[in-house]
Amino acid sequence: MANSSRAPGRSRRVRTAFAVSAAVGLLATAAAVVLPGSASAASTLGASAAERGRYFGTAVAVNRLNDSAYTSILNREFNQVTAENEMKIDALQPQQGQFNYGTADRLVQHARSQGMLVRGHTLAWHSQQPDWMRNMSGPTLRNAMLNHVTQVATHFRGQIEWWDVVNEAFEDGSSGARRDSNLQRTGDDWIEAAFRAARQADPNADLCYNDYNIDNWNDAKTQAVYRMVQDFKSRGVPIDCVGLQSHFTGGSNYPSNYRTTLSSFAALGVDVHITELDIRNAPSDAYRNVVNDCLAVARCKGITVWGIRDSDSWRSNESPLLFNGSGQKKPAYDAVLAALNNGTPPPTGDPTTPPPTGNPTTPPPGGGCTATVTPGQVWGDRYNTSVTVSGASTWSVVVEITPPQRISATWSGNPTWDSSGNVMTMRSNGSGNTFGFTTMMNGNSSARPQIRSCTAG
Ligand code: XIL
Fold first, then answer.
1. E strand or H helix at 334, and its extent?
2. Hey, which of 209, 314, 315, 316 would you mutate to test ligand 1's pocket, going by the most ligand atoms within 8 Å of its Cβ?
3. Which residues pair with 119 in a beta bridge?
4. Poorest-confidence range of 131-135, 244-248, 257-261, 453-457?
5. Taking the model in full, what pTM does it have?
6. CB of 59 within 8 A of CB of 247?
7. What is the dihedral angle through the alpha carbons of 428, 429, 434, 436, rounded to the nearest 10 degrees?
8. Using the 8-state DSSP alphabet, how is residue 24 labeled?
9. Is the bond into 8 cis (omega within 30 degrees of 0)?
């Protein structure tokens, strides 16, 4: 199908206004300043990742949103969320045909209000199935699985940036075989059937295969998943990304060839995501290495840690996360933030040509303030822009971009969007008079944002 093939690095999707504005809300509160041509020192994980065209996210347990200590860290630091359990099959369809979206919707609402991107996890999996599904087999199970994929992807259409369509379908160890499960017993093609159903239900979401122990390039399991993705790409099965859970020392250590694994998957023409990162005892070195490896691979889109505080972790006895139980930053947090801030841009063609002269523009006077554009760093697929306002301490600046270019992240302002997603109104949020944003070129490398107005107040 036509929409299963696209140029590497170029978004197939026409994003919704929400998706365009995602990745921004928390960044808006972050005091990130982009200095043209130099590394900037953002003060939060999400803001720093966004300056490099990435996200930094976390798994969220929805009931913890009532815990203000938890939510304040979430809102401050992260610009992407994955439901830790609330979008799994047993949570969404506890009885056959009865869908329970309330809790998951609450997370999506929270993410939307904060401008966070949402990863959907997971449409098809051998684990955390409701009883009715666990007892099924054959064509009945295949149909029930496909119906679940279709219903759920349709319900969340337009709100999910990436779906983990299939989770953990391969066996550990040296066999390179599929994992035995009720779904696998419906036939080898269950995975591609799930991907096709997901694409049909939500053509705008990127579709990922997600697994653990696929971090070491030499492992049979990694090779087996690689061959499946290669096969899917060659046959036009709609797959856009691979997620590496990366639960280190939950069975495997951070491997020195991790970057090779990321870049090898990427070379197949899929994005890569680090989807569930946690590392036993949170060693700074391993966390730093993971960040550096992701930043070194242009198609590594971001990192999600599997929880915020150690006390939130599914492996809490291993203290594997970036914040301690009191919500304080651990040394690994500092290592991750520094690695992000020091991060070199991805290698593909970057930094490249400076933006054309005379464009971007300074708006016509008259609104009681002046907005001055400073072009920022340029990569192969995107560029940063910062805008400094003078003449007013509270303001709104209207910025228009040229499609198919899309703003993928902003910082240090409160953005809203028109329905086309091409016009952003950025309002001051008290973090200073300079805001910034990242624009994905999507194939148009010459257009630059136009400032339409600057209005005081
Ligand atoms: C875990 C959750 O963190 C736990 O709360 C739950 O009890 C079990 O599942 N791989 C995955 C995640 O894809 O969904 C798992 O999450 C961790 C391993």
1. helix 331-342
2. 314
3. 82, 162
4. 453-457
5. 0.75
6. no
7. -100
8. -
9. no
